[in-house]
Design a protein that fits this description.
Layout: H1 4-17, H2 19-42, H3 54-69, H4 75-86, H5 91-112, H6 116-123, H7 125-133, H8 138-147, H9 153-162, H10 167-191, H11 195-201, H12 205-226
Length: 233
């Protein structure tokens, strides 16, 4: 069996030689919370924006896609803010923005971790066999990672890119996995009396219950991907 410790040592060695990879992972992990704080201080800027033309909808989609794709803001801020300030008209364009953000984040993840998997395969050939054996379950992994409320969107883009899962799969099954949480967060924003009220509502007991249920679903699905198939007799 491949020793987990040795794999971690290989990853550490790879990042010692590829500092941009380390910077990328730090960015997608730390930047969204920092961006959230900045947004909370300046969210009033959205009050004067109206999505009343095709151009404005196009600009909204592009900016939302860039903010999420470059990890400046987490999806948990974009969705309720869009619902509160723009209403249901923004929802389909938010989904398009998710697709754009996925492509951007995935491509950046590819650049940051271009040869990580090859390095792992050279030193741990059994890992390649294990990933190949799970090829047919990649769509399940994508769906359940996206539906889980504890795995950030930007981090998962880097994860899928590092695993070299095809972008087409990430787009299709990733968006399907994100829709439940996105719809709930967006709807919370639509029916809120204020944006800060919408954020507080996302921490209500009902929302915690929904989040916990999605977490259980996500963990179960990821476990189904990770667990080994029983060997044939």
């Amino acid at each position: 069996m491949t020793k987990k410790g040795s794999i971690f040592k290989t990853i550490a060695g790879y990042f010692n030689q590829h500092p941009m990879g380390v910077l990328g992972w730090f960015w997608v992990t730390l930047m969204p919370p920092l961006g959230s704080l900045v947004f909370l201080w300046n969210y009033q800027i959205l009050e004067g924006i109206r999505l009343d033309s095709a151009l404005n909808l196009l600009i909204y989609t592009g900016i939302a896609g860039l903010m999420m794709g470059l990890a400046f803001l987490p999806t948990t801020f974009i969705a309720p803010a869009s619902g509160f300030f723009f209403g249901w008209i923004a929802f389909p364009f938010l989904v398009i923005a998710y697709a754009l953000a996925t492509i951007l984040g995935y491509k950046l993840g590819q650049k940051a971790n271009a040869s990580l998997l090859e390095v792992l395969f050279i030193k741990h050939p059994q890992l390649k066999e294990e990933l190949e054996a799970r090829k047919s379950k990649e769509m399940n992994l994508i769906f359940f990672v996206r539906i889980s409320p504890i795995i950030p969107f930007a981090v998962s883009n880097f994860l899928f890119a590092s695993m070299k899962i095809p972008l087409k799969k990430v787009l299709i099954f990733g968006i399907l996995g994100m829709l439940p949480r996105t719809f709930i967060a967006f709807g919370t924003g639509v029916f809120a009396n204020s944006f800060l009220g919408a954020k507080e509502s996302l921490s209500s007991p009902v929302q915690w219950g929904i989040g916990f249920a999605l977490l259980i679903i996500g963990v179960f699905g990821i476990y189904q991907y990770i667990k080994k198939k029983p060997k044939s007799a």
